[in-house]
Amino acid sequence: MGSSTGLGSLTGTAVSPGAGYGPAHVLAGEIPEPDKESRHGGDAAAERARAERAVEEVAADLEARGARAGGEAQEVLGAQALMARDPSLAAEVGALIDRGVAAPRAVFDAFGKYRDLLAAAGGYLAERVTDLDDIRDRTIAVLTGLPMPGVPASAAEPFVLVARDLAPADTALLSKDVVAAFVTEQGGPTSHTAILARAMGVPAVVGCAGATAIAPGTPVLVDGGSGEVLLAPGPDRVAAARRAVEARRAALSAADGPGATADGHAVPLLANIGGPRDLPGALEHGAEGVGLYRTEFLFLDRASAPSAKEQEEAYRAVFEAFPGGRVVVRTLDSGADKPLAFLPPPEEEPNPALGERGLRMFRRYPEIMAAQLGALAAAAAGASAKVQVMAPMVATAEEAEWFAEACRTAGLDSAGIMIEVPSAALRAADLIRAVDFFSIGTNDLTQYALAADRQVSAVAGLQDPWHPAVLDLIAMAASAASEAGKGCGVCGEAAADPVLACVLVGMGVTSLSMGAPALPWVRAALARHTLGECRSAAVAARFAVSAGDAKAAARAVLPGLEDLGL
Ligand code: PEP
Ligand code: MG
After folding, report:
1. Are residues 337 and 481 in the same domain?
2. Where is this region: Disordered (predicted)?
3. Are residues 94 and 117 in the same domain?
4. CATH classification of the domain holding 164
5. What range defines the domain where residue 513 resides?
6. What are the tens digits of pLDDT across the range 199-214?
7. How many domains does the chain contain in total?
8. From the annotation, which residues make up the binding site for Mg(2+)?
9. Which atom number of ligand 1 is nearest to the Cα of residue 420?
């Protein structure tokens, strides 16, 4: 531990490049229940005033956050603030304090009573229980000096968000202006924290043991390239990290235009998006279209199926952003790491990743598939973008045929499938006959090839798309598509790794789709290598025995990586 590393360092898996520096905001765990027997000192009026101030502070904070976020978030947070100021709740808290109960316990009990009433009412009211719990926890945090639960949507300076793990809902309101970096204790390179961080262009380290023990407010320097997390680093380290980032940025901005190797072999570079809100980033980074529109991200917080009109609008907004370009839409991939409340599996599954998810859900709920395909066809009707639709989690040729037929019935003329199950890659020649294109989902393909759940950080080391077993499966799918004269893209996170992107192109992959901030890196890496060099890198990688060796072997034959600092 030297002066340049201050309080020491932690290490995790680097999943989103760049350096981020700021005070740690440690996402609090659950607020503990205040002691049942806790009593105040005897001055009930003062204790009441203290409770009222705490509730008001929470309500005002919710309102202020809503005002900053605007839109739907403002409505939700405004409704929560109203709930906090409910006079009958205040009366209940006051009555308990008058009986000697300390304010934190009085808040807990009073909110508990209303919580039970709401839960018993069922339906919409029962869904408000979580909001009420959130207000209760925030008020108790103010009263007891505990860190505030939840992620702040704004801050005086960008902070490093430290958490055990992050759910998509935790991060809905976050932006790059607020978060300097992410550090999580759990998760691997394909966890949604990692995907989100890359989509936002924010440096991130996941699977970082001990992260939540960082004292809140500690200045933290996160290196999203090496996985190092420095606690209270000296100014020399912070300045060096910033200089390295600047140097790379300059090298990157030199590459623009459509994706191609140094000798002019075109490789369209497309963006992965979760909805219209990701469009500005995709356009800013020069995406030539969309290679993966994760439509389930539009509806993660929905208890009921979205209407046809609502879907159509969200699809049309994306089609219109790429006139004449390609937009590949994935049908709802519900289940496992992306559960949708309106598409529940019929029973508790012991292994959700192996259960009813993706296309399997559509076989259970065909009316939801028909509605989505109908909305897509309606939105595509007037659009000049080339709309392609694909299904996730396809395992057999029969499933591929079933999906392609449903697309044709809906009036969609380009139907494809994701290759993310090993059986589909192994028998790619059978599956390609039924569809127009493949798109390889390397996140799930790696998970299933190595039998390593992408949500379990203990096996994150196995979750590496560089593993030659995964490379072999990718090569099989790419060559089956090429023999059939059809396209085979990659839209998993492997496409966002500039070195691996060269290897994928060398294996015959025809387009690459990634979180927008990775586009300049991949564009620059391809522009520095010929197709022949990419092919040599692919051969070298597939000859290796381990993921680490595959990466080293590919790098050794890709001379242009160095000036990108890769
Ligand atoms: C994949 O599995 O590689 C993929 C692109 O889909 P998702 O990460 O959304 O499961
Ligand atoms: Mg997938």
Report:
1. yes
2. 1-48
3. yes
4. 3.50.30.10
5. 255-564
6. 777 899 998 999 999 9
7. 3
8. 420, 444
9. 2
Q: Which of 491, 502, 529, 534 is catalytic?
A: 491
Based on the number of CB atoms within 10 Å of its own CB, is 382 exposed (0-12), middle (13-18) or buried (19 or more)? exposed
User: What average pLDDT does the chain have?
Assistant: 89
Q: Domain check: are 164 and 81 in the same one?
A: no
- Residue 3 pLDDT more than 60? no
Quote the pLDDT of residue 2.
37
Alpha carbon distance 241, 88 (integer Å): 54
Is 460 in the same domain as 532?
yes
Last residue of a domain, one of 229, 249, 269: 249
> In CATH, what number is assigned to the domain containing residue 558?
3.20.20.60
CA–centroid distance, residue 243 to ligand 2 (Å) = 36
Residue 1 lies in a domain: no
Our mutation pick for probing the ligand 1 site, out of 270, 294, 361, 447, counting the most ligand atoms within 8 A of Cβ, is 294
Whether the model clears a pTM of 0.85, i.e. scores above it, the answer is: no
Strongest mean pLDDT among 80-84, 331-335, 375-379: 375-379
Catalytic residue status for 491: yes
CA 441 to ligand 1: nearest atom: 3
Phi, psi torsion values for 294, nearest 5 degrees: -80, 90
Residue 495 lies in a domain: yes
What's the CA-to-centroid distance between 338 and ligand 2, angstroms?
A: 10
Q: Is 387 helix (H, G, I), strand (E, B) or coil?
A: strand
In three-state secondary structure terms, 16 is: strand
Nearest CA to ligand 1 atom 8: 443
Q: End of a domain among 114, 144, 174?
A: 144
Q: Annotated binding site for phosphoenolpyruvate: which residue ranges?
A: 294, 330, 443-444, 454
Ligand 1 binding pocket, CB closer than 6 Å: 292, 294, 333, 420, 441-444, 491-492
Within a domain: 62: yes
Cβ(423)–Cβ(474) under 8 Å?
no
In a shared domain, residues 259 and 370: yes
Least Cα distance to 475 among 459, 460, 488 occurs for 488
Atom of ligand 1 nearest to the CA of 440: 3
> Are 411 and 405 spatial neighbours (Cβ–Cβ below 8 Å)?
no
- Give the Å distance between the CA of 422 and the centre of ligand 2: 12
Among protein residues, the one with the nearest Cα to ligand 1's atom 1 is: 441
**Residue 284 shares a structural domain with residue 379:** yes
Q: What value does the mean pLDDT take over residues 224-252?
A: 84
Q: How far is the CA of 441 from the centre of ligand 1 (A)?
A: 5
Q: In terms of domains, do 292 and 401 share one?
A: yes
Pick the closest to residue 222 from 401, 17, 78, 397 (CA basis).
17
Concerning whether 208 is annotated as a catalytic residue, the answer is: no
